[in-house]
Amino acid sequence: MAEAGAGFLEQLKSCIVWSWTYLWTVWFFLVLFLVYILRVPLRINDNLSTVSMFLNTLTPKFYVALTGTSSLISGLILKPEKS
């Protein structure tokens, strides 16, 4: 009897795993479909070109400042404790 219960649980687990994978796949394709449908109202191409233009205008000085600030903050957060 215990073997039948274990077999049932394995079948149930297999069914849940399969359905979960199937639902994620359906969700992924639904999101892709919505992005495709809404590409004109969202003006994705215009937004991507604007972001690309903005990133091209950043100077090396900005990257140096960003790296320095990041290092400073990391040093403050990861400051070793004195024992």
Automatic annotation (TrEMBL):
Family listed: Belongs to the ST7 family.
Q: Which organism is it from?
A: Mus musculus (Mouse)
Localization (cell): Membrane
What is this protein's record name? Suppression of tumorigenicity 7
What keywords would UniProt list here? Membrane, Transmembrane, Transmembrane helix
Q: Where are the transmembrane segments?
A: 21-42
Note the InterPro entries from the entry: ST7
Q: How does this protein sit in the membrane?
A: Multi-pass membrane protein
Cellular-component GO terms for this entry: membrane
Domain of life of the native organism: Eukaryota
Against Pfam families, the record matches this protein to:
ST7
The gene for this chain is St7
